[in-house]
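Good day; I would like, with your permission, to put a structural problem before you. What I wish to show you is a protein chain and, alongside it, a tokenised description of its three-dimensional fold. Please examine both parts with care and let me know of anything in them that strikes you as inconsistent. Thank you for your consideration; the sequence and its tokens are set out here:

***
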Amino acid sequence: MSVFSGTRPFRFHHLSADSQLDNDCFPLARHPQGQGFSAVSQSDGGSLSAGKQLQDTCLFSNKQIEIHAVGAAPGGEAYLLLASDFSLLYDSGFGFSAPGLVCNVERLLGGRSPDCLFLSHSHYDHASGSAWCKRRWPNLPVVAMAHAKRVFERPTAVASIRDLNQRVAQERGLTFDDADFLDTLAVSHACSDGELLELGSQRFEVVEAVGHTRCSAMLWCEQQQLLLGSESLGVYLNQDEVMPAYLVSYEGSLRAIERAQALNPKWILLNHRHVAEGKDARRFLVNAGREARRAAQLVFDGSRAGKSREVLTQELKRLYYTKCAQEIQPEAAFDLNNRLMLDLLLKR
């Protein structure tokens, strides 16, 4: 029986083209010296200049769907899925780099709006850019789990998102002139496990993935055997390294990994840098489960042996804050997540 039986999909269609962006891409983050903000391709860390080939941003193509890296700052990745009859923006990166994201998307779409934006969860490095996407494309549907919608309705949560954006922008030598615009963060379409997004001829099933956050989700396209992943699976560092990232539920992350394995995807888009295919996709999921359990066992054994919280924190950091991890996650963000994961495990 099809996994879509008995479900009622959200249907999204091509939105009408808006006017082109001006040459400055309405910069909201700028260098103190005033030289402006560059639109950056995640494929190589460089700028997307007018003469650069846009196919440099393509991470994946199976002749029916392309996936382009359109995030405009390392660590704030976003991906544009392109097909002949739809476009889907998956995550939206930081708020301070959102102008570059919008420029990258419009260059790929020729000025047209994406048909839909799906947020894998509500964290600042994945969801903040959605506010500027809505400003540029007012009719753009923003889809996320119902819990994410509630997060954006809490002033304290939005204040935290704003502070984290400002902190990272400052660390990178940028000033974030329009941080208050994050107050407009919102989800227009709240979804739940098993619901469908119908985009052109393709259907994407929402797969709940509680673990990293309570609002984490994945998208599964059975027709293409393509899974758009979640940090609840873990963070891909290289073919042998996966960093666990469960902040609210260890068991939830294990369930998310098991659900992904049961789907047996041919391709997995991994949130922060990679598309895994075939054997590599299966190996990632095996490694993800192994490292999730390894981190938990380290804490359980250390706690029983009387190790202090500080010692366990440093042991986890030595194990997982590798050179590869440092390339995609600021140290302060890793330390925060590390503490949350440790607290979660110690409570068990």
Remarks:
- The chain has two domains: 12-191, 224-348.
